[in-house]
Design goal:
single chain; 5-stranded antiparallel beta sheet; two-stranded antiparallel sheet; elongated
């Protein structure tokens, strides 16, 4: 499964994934209990004069573990702006 996050940089997403039980095994590669994630900077989005950074995350692993970590990451990402 793939997740696209806008306005949150790669280092923050990696931090969130490590807080969720993962460990960075190589640059941009995080492994947790039953899941793995690859994190990279996507193509920025332009909204008129505003430019938003995009972070892409590709997950693999046990379906239940992947669903759980995605749900937890999405909650953290919602709080990121405020």
């Amino acid at each position: 499964m793939r997740l696209t996050l806008r306005g949150i940089g790669v280092p923050i997403v990696i931090l969130y994934l490590t807080e969720l039980g993962g460990a960075e095994t190589a640059p941009g590669l995080i492994a947790g209990p039953g899941w793995q994630a690859r994190v990279w900077a996507g193509e920025p989005v332009r909204l008129h004069a505003l430019r938003l950074g995009v972070t892409e995350v590709a997950f693999s692993g046990e379906p239940a573990a992947v669903e759980q970590v995605i749900a937890a990451l999405q909650k953290k990402a919602i709080r990121a702006g405020g």
